[in-house]
Automatic annotation (TrEMBL):
Protein name: Protoheme IX farnesyltransferase
Keywords, alphabetical: Cell membrane, Heme biosynthesis, Membrane, Transferase, Transmembrane, Transmembrane helix
Family designation: Belongs to the UbiA prenyltransferase family. Protoheme IX farnesyltransferase subfamily.
One GO BP annotation of this record: heme O biosynthetic process
Lineage of the species this protein comes from: Bacteria, Pseudomonadati, Pseudomonadota, Alphaproteobacteria, Sphingomonadales
GO MF annotation terms: protoheme IX farnesyltransferase activity
Protein's organism: Stakelama marina
Note: Carbon 2 of the heme B porphyrin ring is defined according to the Fischer nomenclature.
């Protein structure tokens, strides 16, 4: 709700709210934040207007990817409690509008990035949109429990895009940040998948807990956390950041590892409320915000 100067409450028209919902704004806020931090941690400062434009392009591109995901998956979304009220499965919007919106936004974001920023950033943005829509959504999601391991790369590109927007190239530090998000995605998602398993099973989506069971999923969460932690703390010993990031990353990653170990080593009861899994999922989001915030703080303050 927006409040005008006359104090009259004004709400967004319902149709606008539905288009906004297509962009998955909450998930995308973290994607955009990692892109912003990749840009702000670069050694070359970017002009604020260009910086704003680059972040806008990442936000629009990510939103487009979300809309195309919802366009393709309306049938799946209708079968899951968590997603059934989305604009398409609820019947508030027709699929063609979502398709036009998604394609239009995707093309606009990439073209604007190319014209206003540079070809490297535009190319990586195009790759991440195509990866999320074609590789994850269309190809892998309904076929293999490794869907999010491979497809999850899409959500890891934004730090590289932000860095490339500022510098016109890529480097080891944003590549490590890519690796961090890439290896973070399995524990992030599988923690959630453990407590919404029934939804995925009902919809016939082969997520790991559905196909391989809880025990394997717990082990996999633990296994992915090890290289993730290494990628998270590597920048300081490699001389790519200062001690501020070093200390912050070690502390935050130790907490992540603790929560992941609790999930990984646990056996569940029939009436389990999945508290450790919910805690790991919630913390995974805070963790990534914190780590990228620390990277920028280290760059500017240290
Ligand atoms: C293929 C990889 C991923 C999968 C399958 C996945 C899946 C999910 C799911 C199903 C949710 C539940 C929230 C909802 O839609 O209401 C969620 C939440 C969330 N995800 Fe992921 N995720 C992935 C990667 C990422 C990445 C790369 C980021 C950001 C860098 C991210 C950020 C978030 C955030 C911020 C939330 C919380 C949203 C809220 O508060 O409603 N996710 N994720
Ligand atoms: C810059 C750019 C283009 C970024 C791509 C965005 C991206 C890959 C975001 C993270 C992935 C994500 C939202 C997964 C949700 O899974 P799902 O689609 O299976 O979730 P759902 O069941 O909620 O639809």
């Amino acid at each position: 709700m927006i409040v005008t100067t006359a104090d009259k409450p004004v709400t967004l028209p319902a149709e606008w709210r539905d288009f906004l919902a297509l962009t998955k704004p909450r998930v995308m806020s973290l994607v955009v934040f990692t892109g912003l931090c990749g840009m702000l941690a670069a050694p070359v400062p970017i002009h604020p207007v260009l910086g704003f434009t680059a972040i806008l392009c990442i936000a629009l591109g990510a939103g487009a990817a979300g809309a195309l995901n919802m366009w393709y998956e309306a049938d799946l979304d209708a079968q899951m409690k968590r997603t059934a009220k989305r604009p398409l499965p609820s019947g508030r919007m027709d699929r063609q509008s979502a398709l036009h919106f998604g394609v239009g936004l995707a093309v606009f974001s990439v073209v604007l990035m190319e014209l206003a920023i540079n070809a490297v950033a535009a190319t990586i943005l195009a790759i991440s949109i195509l990866f999320y829509v074609l590789v994850y959504t269309v190809w892998l999601k309904r076929r293999t429990p490794q869907n999010i391991v491979i497809g999850g790369a899409a959500g890891a590109f934004p730090p590289l895009i932000g860095w490339a927007a500022a510098t016109g190239s890529v480097a080891w530090l944003p590549f490590l940040m890519f690796t961090l998000v890439f290896l973070w995605t399995p524990p992030h998602f599988w923690a959630l998948a453990l407590f919404v398993k029934t939804d995925y099973a009902n919809a016939g989506v082969p997520m790991l807990p559905v196909v391989a069971g809880e025990r394997t999923t717990r082990h996999q969460i633990g296994l992915y956390t090890i290289p993730m932690a290494a990628a998270a703390v590597a920048p300081w010993p490699l001389g790519l950041t200062g001690a501020l990031y070093g200390v912050a990353s070690i502390a935050a990653t130790a907490v992540f590892a603790l929560f992941a170990a609790q999930v990984s080593l646990r056996t569940t009861q029939a009436d389990d409320r999945m508290r450790p899994e919910k805690r790991l999922f919630a913390y995974s989001i805070l963790y990534l915000f914190f780590m990228f915030g620390a990277l920028v703080a280290d760059h500017w303050l240290a």
